[in-house]
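Most newcomers find our protein records easier to grasp once they have seen one. A learned vocabulary of local backbone shapes supplies the integers on the structure line. An example says more than a description, so a record of this kind follows:
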Amino acid sequence: MAQQAKDKGIKVKSEFTITPGSELIRYTVERDGVLDVFEEIGGVVLANACGPCIGQWARHTDDPKRKNSIITSFNRNFSKRNDGNPATHAFVASPEIVTAMVLSGSMTFNPLTDSLINEKGEKIKLDPPTGIELPPKGFDVEDAGFQAPAENGEGIDVKVDPKSDRLQLLTPFKPITQDQVKGMRILLKAKGKCTTDHISMAGPWLTYRGHLENISNNCFIGAINFFNDKANSVINYSVDKYMPVPDSARAYQKAGVGTIVFGEENYGEGSSREHAAMEPRYLGVKAVVVKSFARIHETNLKKQGMLALTFANPADYDKIRQDDLVDLADFDQLAPGKPMSCRLTHTDGSTDEFQLTHTYNLAQIAWVKAGSALNKIRQDQLK
């Protein structure tokens, strides 16, 4: 499509960004002249990384609050995914359709019937796109970007500026104890779809992906609170007021109160974003209880030493009230295939108790007991 546009004297009418998926792809298409063609018709080649797919690219607009539309050939179009702006309507289409619309500058352009005006003022139509399935010269790369680690890293001192807001050394998570899963407060009862984008929004937040404290300020800000149908607004009983979810988590942490999150079906679907598990863990969430998990996110929670649990009876989700105190009385008996009991103490003095299930194996239980999978690896290396 880009070669056809170049041959017919057409340049893009709107901003056009191209993202090679890897250095292997970038080197190959540069070698074969493909990147030159994109640039000659007005395209801008971005970094060969996954960042642009999850919003790490600059939007150029005179009014960021105005409703606007973008179209990409990336794989998802969750609200605010691309630029953090709820007014941005994002559509997903094939690379050919995206390119055709960029050439026209209009999302109403129909390449099957509509015409374009080229640089000579001629009225032309686009031909049906054709392509080559694989590079005729094969794939190639000079520098794949891999740097082998030191054979012995014990003497390496990693220095990070303590004033940096983008990089921060990680402090190992402490193991969850039985006392910490008694009298927990509900940080969030998520309503409906709760993807990794709802849990840890991408877009401009990716600036802080190397700084866990700062990026945790986006934790659950896109999820809908079951009790008020609002995003990023939950009641905190330590201070008796509504506040953003990350602020509420920190208030409970300061008060020494553990927290728990409840959710519905396929919780954590979407990108396998590690931060969506690290942030709740960092903010003091001890357990996530849902009707069902997206598989990768469930594993990510386990790796951070958290409890990833499911309702034995999904209808028990409806029993949870926002001012409940929550106990997991038999946490210290965690074992493969053994259910765990959850007890809700309501403010009227009544209680509800139900069973939770899990998929932890012995190795994953060892992660929980160590505080995280990384902690367990460290322990094993020191033996």
Observations:
- The longest helix spans residues 95-104.
- The two ends are 59 Å apart (CA to CA).
- The chain has two domains: 2-124, 178-382.
- The CA atoms of residues 290 and 310 lie 5 Å apart.
